[in-house]
């Protein structure tokens, strides 16, 4: 936080001599100096809060990206449903995070497990937090909920969305963010008492684990308990592709998410007006430079993952697929999110390359296990997020780690960068505890919803599509390629080639 530089007339007086007006002069100079100092301090607060608000707006814009990506990835008969769930994630998540979530995450002073202050934003703003910080963290919370909604798309009851979204954003996600981001969290790299896990704490700068793994693992349990969509696997166990209806929406959503990621990763610095003490660089170098570097590493990881997926899928399946490339791009972003601020740009290329193969591998495993995730959310966010956490433990650079997490110059850093294995050990602990925590909270929740028949829609409703049966109509007129898509008041037909030969009027044969 910014600090005020003060001037004391008593300190200045010896430098003005013993003239009759020395005291008045000293008081006048210090008064002007203190006024300027206070103004500069207020300006620093204003600039940093404006930067954080702008970053929050970018992260919130990712909700539109999620909505477009989800809409394009499902069949047309479920478009209105998936769009409504994305709106619900933001709305329900806003209230639950306001009432409970922020307090559980950052309500210090507290213990290492859970926060206990600022319920309903009581005593806001404070020396520690302003409203901009709440808005930024809320945008992260609803991003985690949006990830989960993609995994259980096309077959989930609306009430289940309300329940899981509120529980995830109000309790499950905030606890994880407290552990790894709060100054009191037991595994946080920013822990203020100096008692760091393995001497380093787990470095998850922008949330490969806190956001992406939480959303991905929650979605994994939801999709697993619900089971695959009708028709996803035939009676012999063979895979049937239930393709999304609009690749254009997928591409639009991907670019919106790409744009929003520049608030997600660089914005996680929270402030921008901060200089770094570095004798090898001039005054032009500061946190603003680290923010730019973070945007570059984010970009390179995503681009590398997209190209790797493009050529990798071409070798595996024999064609170029834009939807696969978009998912690969997002997998690269999810992976670099953990170490984006503490690695070199060249390392980000390594991160993106491996992330693409992690996603491809998990997708193949999902098919073998007959696991159905329309958005590949568990594989993308859970799998690539896990790789990103490990990647940070391997490639974090000492100089950048000390800049981003100051105060402990001997803090361990990346194994491959000469920093030993302690940071990697902390990263592995993070993966284990996130999987465990989300599993013991969201798994039973989805199971109870299933047992009380609140989770999955009926077979008839799923076949007809939720837009008609649950939301009063279709998003737009369309032809559905699914079998058995005949619905009251709206006839869907398949256009098939006919086997009737075209008569040749110029070469008729005469039968005698």
Automatic annotation (TrEMBL):
Instruction: Tell me where in or outside the cell this protein is found.
Output: Cell membrane; Membrane
Q: Mainly resides where?
A: membrane
Which InterPro entries does the annotation name?
Ammonium/urea_transptr, Ammonium_transpt, Ammonium_transpt_CS, NH4_transpt_AmtB-like_dom
Do the record's keywords include Methyltransferase?
no
What biological-process terms (Gene Ontology) are attached? ammonium homeostasis
Q: Which domain of life is it from?
A: Eukaryota
One Gene Ontology cellular component term attached to this UniProt record is: plasma membrane
> Residues in domain Ammonium transporter AmtB-like?
51-476
Which terms are listed as keywords in the entry?
Answer: Ammonia transport, Membrane, Transmembrane, Transmembrane helix, Transport
Reply yes or no: does the keyword Transport apply: yes
Q: Which GO terms describe its molecular function?
A: ammonium channel activity
Gene3D superfamilies linked: Ammonium transporter AmtB like domains (1.10.3430.10)
Q: How does it sit in the membrane?
A: Multi-pass membrane protein
Residues passing through the membrane, by range: 50-74, 95-114, 134-152, 159-181, 201-225, 246-264, 346-366, 428-449
Family the entry assigns: Belongs to the ammonia transporter channel (TC 1.A.11.2) family.
Q: What is this protein called?
A: Ammonium transporter
Which species expresses this protein natively?
Answer: Anisodus acutangulus
């Amino acid at each position: 936080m910014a600090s005020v530089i003060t001037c004391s007339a008593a300190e200045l007086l010896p430098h003005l001599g013993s003239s009759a007006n020395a005291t008045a002069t000293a008081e006048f100079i210090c008064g002007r100096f203190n006024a300027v100092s206070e103004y500069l301090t207020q300006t620093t607060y204003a600039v940093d809060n404006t930067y954080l608000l702008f970053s929050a707006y970018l992260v919130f814009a990712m909700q539109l990206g999620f909505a477009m990506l989800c809409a394009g990835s499902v069949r047309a008969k479920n478009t209105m449903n998936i769009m409504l769930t994305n709106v619900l994630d933001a709305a329900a998540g806003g209230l639950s995070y306001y009432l409970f979530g922020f307090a559980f995450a950052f309500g210090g002073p507290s213990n290492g497990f859970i926060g206990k202050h600022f319920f309903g934003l009581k005593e806001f703003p404070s020396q520690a937090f302003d409203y901009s910080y709440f808005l930024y963290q809320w945008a992260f919370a609803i991003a985690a909920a949006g990830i989960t909604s993609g995994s259980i798309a096309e077959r989930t009851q609306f009430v289940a969305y309300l329940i899981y979204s509120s529980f995830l954003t109000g309790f499950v996600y905030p606890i994880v963010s407290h552990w790894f981001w709060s100054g009191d969290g037991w595994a946080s790299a920013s822990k203020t008492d100096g008692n760091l896990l393995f001497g380093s704490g787990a470095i998850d700068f922008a949330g490969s684990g806190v956001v992406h793994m939480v959303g991905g693992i929650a979605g994994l349990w939801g999709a697993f308990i619900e089971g695959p969509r009708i028709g996803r696997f035939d009676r012999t166990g063979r895979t049937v592709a239930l393709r999304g209806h609009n690749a254009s929406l997928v591409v639009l959503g991907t670019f919106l998410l790409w744009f929003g990621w520049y608030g997600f990763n660089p914005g996680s610095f929270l402030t921008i007006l901060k200089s770094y003490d570095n004798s090898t660089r001039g005054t032009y170098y500061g946190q603003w430079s680290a923010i730019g570097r973070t945007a570059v590493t984010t970009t390179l990881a995503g681009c590398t993952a997209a190209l790797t997926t493009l050529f990798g899928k071409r070798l595996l399946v024999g064609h170029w697929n834009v939807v696969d490339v978009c998912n690969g791009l997002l997998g690269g972003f999810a992976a670099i999110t953990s170490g984006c601020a503490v690695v070199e740009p060249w390392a980000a290329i390594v991160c993106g390359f491996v992330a693409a193969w992690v996603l491809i591998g998990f997708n193949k495993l999902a098919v073998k296990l007959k696991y159905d995730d329309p958005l590949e959310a568990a594989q993308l966010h859970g799998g690539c997020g896990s790789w990103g956490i490990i990647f940070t433990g391997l490639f974090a650079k000492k100089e950048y780690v000390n800049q981003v997490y100051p105060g402990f110059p001997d803090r361990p850093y990346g194994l491959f960068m000469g920093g030993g294995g302690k940071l990697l050990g902390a990263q592995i602990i993070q993966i284990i505890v996130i999987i465990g925590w989300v599993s013991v909270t969201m798994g039973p929740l989805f199971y109870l919803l299933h047992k009380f028949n609140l989770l999955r829609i009926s077979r008839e409703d799923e076949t007809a599509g939720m837009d008609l049966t649950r939301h009063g109509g279709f998003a737009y007129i369309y032809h559905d390629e699914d079998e058995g898509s005949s619905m009251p008041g709206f006839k869907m037909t398949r256009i098939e080639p006919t086997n009737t030969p075209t008569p040749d009027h110029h070469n008729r044969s005469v039968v005698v």
